Amino acid sequence: MQTTYLEAIRQAIWEEMERDESVYILGEDVGIYGGAFKVTKGMLDHFGENRVLDTPISESAIVGAAIGSALVGMRPIAEMQFIDFISCAFDQIVNFAAKCRYRWGAGVPIVVRGPCGGGVHGGPFHSQNVESYFFNVPGLKIVCPSTAYDAKGLMKAAIRDDDPVLYFEHKYLYRRIKDELPKEDFTVPIGKAKLRREGDDISIITYGAMVYKALDAAEEVAQDGIEVEVLDLRSLLPLDEEAILETAKKTSKIIVLHEATLTGGPGGEIVARIAEKAFDFLDGPIVRIAPPDTPVPYSPPLEEAFLPQVSDVVNKVRELASY
Amino acid sequence: MSVDVIMPQMGESIAEGTMVKWLKKVGDRVQRDEPLFEISTDKVDAEIPSPAEGILLEIFVKEGETVEINTVVGRIGAEGEKPVGPPAQAEAPAEAPAEPAPTATPVTTAAQAEAAPAATTAAPTPVARPGGAPVKSSPVVQNIAAEHGIDVSLVEGTGAGGRVTKKDILRYIEQSAGVAGAPTPAQAAAPAAAPAAVPPTAPPATAPSGPVFPSGQNEVREEMNIMRKKIAEHMVMSKHTSPHVYSIFEIDMSNVVARRNALKPEFAAEGVKLTFLSFFMEAIIRGIKEYPIINSSVDGDVIVYKKDVNIGVAVALENGLIVPVVKHADQMNLLGLAKGAADLADRARTKRLMPDDVQDGTFTITNVGVFGSVFGLPIINQPQVAILGIGTIVKRPVVVDDMIAIRPIAHLSLSYDHRIVDGADASRFMSTVKNELEKPFA
To answer: Which of A40, B121, B162, B338 lies 20 to 30 Å from A219, alpha-carbon distance?
Structure first.
C-alpha cells in the first residue's frame, strides 16, 4: 500500500512513541485538533494528554519546554505549526539547544519540526524555507526529506539522535508524494545524500521539493541527449561533502538548486566547497538556481514566477551543457 | 590628455614581464604613484606605481599575459575621456581589443602555434594580440591535457565561443588513441603510420631543444613559472659562455666563531642577527681588493674591472631562487654587511624586493651549506666571472701543530671563468679569504 509523505511522518512519530516512552509531542493544536495538517491525528486518544501536549501560541515556550524536558531525559518532538514561526524560537534553538553539548556536555535530543515551503499560495508567512537561518549554526542538524521513505526514516533517525535536529517537511509534498514503505523498522542516516538519477553530463544538487523539479527537467533534456544526474542532499547539516564532490568530479558541470532565496542560501556553501576542493575537475561555471531575494509573494502568478520551475531548470541545463 | 602605462624594464637583462594582477579596474580613479598593477619578471615580483593621476581608461594586457618591456599595458586619462584602443604597436585593429575576436577558429590557433616558437628567438616584436586570443578551456580540460601531454589549441572546441569542453578533449583523445597514442609534439614529428587519421589541425613540427622522450601515462606535467624558465635559460647560457673551473679551500672557523660569539650581544643590541655570512662577505671584500680580476666582467676581448663591489647573495625561495645585491659592500663595516644582507633576504622572501635590489652585482655568494652540503660547485651568475659557495660548518678532527684537534671546519668553493681567471689567481684570492677568516681574534 502506498503511504503519503505526511502519513510517513505520522507513522514515524507514532512508532517511536510506542517504542520509547520518553518520546512525546508538543505544539499548537497538536492534541485535540490533531495538528494543522493532521500529522498528529489520533495521537492524543492513543497516547494520552501526558504525551501529547497542546501549548499556547508561543514558539519560544514550546522549544524552551522541549529543551528543559530533554535535559532531564525526555525526547520531545516540538511542532511549529508553520515553520516560518520558528524564528520566534530562534534564541532557544541557537543559544540553548545548539550549545548545551558544548557548554555542559549535555546533549539536547529534541526534534523541531514543521511544514516549510511554497507552491500552495500561502504568502510570505506560510511559505518560507528557513534552513539558511540555521545553516550557520554549529551544533544543529538539519534534514529536508523529499520522499515518503526518507520522511519516515529521517524522522526516526532525528528522534533517536542525541542532539537537536531541525526537521523541515515540505507541505507541497505532504499528500502529493507517496512511497511503498517497508513493514519493518528502518532509519535513514542523517548527513547522507542520495542519487535520484544518474547521468554523465550535468549534476543538479538539490533537496526537498526541488528534487522533483530537477527530475522533471532531467527527463525533458534527456530527449536531447543531455544526461543529468540528480543528487538529493536529504540533510543540510551535516552536509554530505563526499557525495557532492563525487558527483561534481564525475560530470564537471554543476547546478545547485534550492527553494530558499538565493543570497546566503545553502547553495553558496555547496558551490564554495566544490570550487575549493574540485576546481581541477570543473568544465564550466557552477550555477545556482534559487528564488530571487524577495519575500514569497501572495499572488499565485507571482509565486509561480518566484519559485524555480521545471522550465527554469531546463533552460539553465541547456545553457550549461552548451558552455 | 592620456598617459600610456608601460611594462617597465626591471633590469638590464630583462626583456619581458608577466602581468600578475591589476590592482585597479577600468574606470577606477588612481593617484600618481599609487600601486597600479603587479608584475613578475625573471628577477623580481613587484608592484608598479601609476605614472599619472586620473582614471584608468583601458587595459590592454590581461592578467597572466607576458609582454615585452615598454609594451603599453593600459592608459590613464581624464574623467569622461574616451578609450581609443591600443597604440600602433602592430597593424593595430581599429576596435579596442577588450574582448578577443570571437573568430577563435582553427585558423587563429594555427597562426598562434606558429608564432609561439618564433617569438622566443626573433628580435623584439611587439606583442599585441589582435586575433591571438588564448584558447578557452576549463580546469578539467587543462588537467586532462596535462595528463595526456596534449596541446589544447589543437583540439576543436564546440563550446560557447569555440571553448574546448571536457567532451571535446575526451573525444580528441579517443580519436587519437586509434592513431598512435597521445599526439605530443615529439611524436607528431615522427612519421605517423596513418597520416590520414591525424586530426585536421596537425601540430607544427617544432624542433625540440631538449632530449626527446615519449609521453607516458604515469607522470605529471607542470608548466615552469617565469622564474624557473629564466633560471633554466640563464644557467644554460652561463655554462655555455664561461668555461668553469673550481677551487676548494678548507677553512678553520674557530676564530670566526669566537669573534661572532664576542660580537653577538653588541649586534643584538642594534637589532641585528650576526650571521657567519657577514664574516665571509668581509673576507671576500678583502680578497677582491687584492685581486680585482675576481670582480670583473668580460666584454668581447676586453676585461672590465668593476670599481664597485656589489655582492649578491643567493636566497632560496619556495619555487626558485633570487639574488639580491648588497651594494657598495666594500664601504661597509661588519654591522652594515649584516644589516644589508638580512634586510635583502627578508625582503626577498616576502616579495618586497625592488628591481634595483637585484641589479649590478659584481660577485655572488651562495650558501650551499644551509641545506647540508659539504661544498657545492655553483654556476657563475653572468656577467660576473666568479661565484663562491659556502659549505656547511661542521666540527672535524684536524691536525694542528702535529696534534689532533677538533675544529669547526667550512669548505669554500670558488667557481670561476677560466677565460680570464687562472687557477693561480683564484687560489691566491681564496688564500686571502682563508687568511682573513682564520686570522687570530684579538
So the answer is: B162
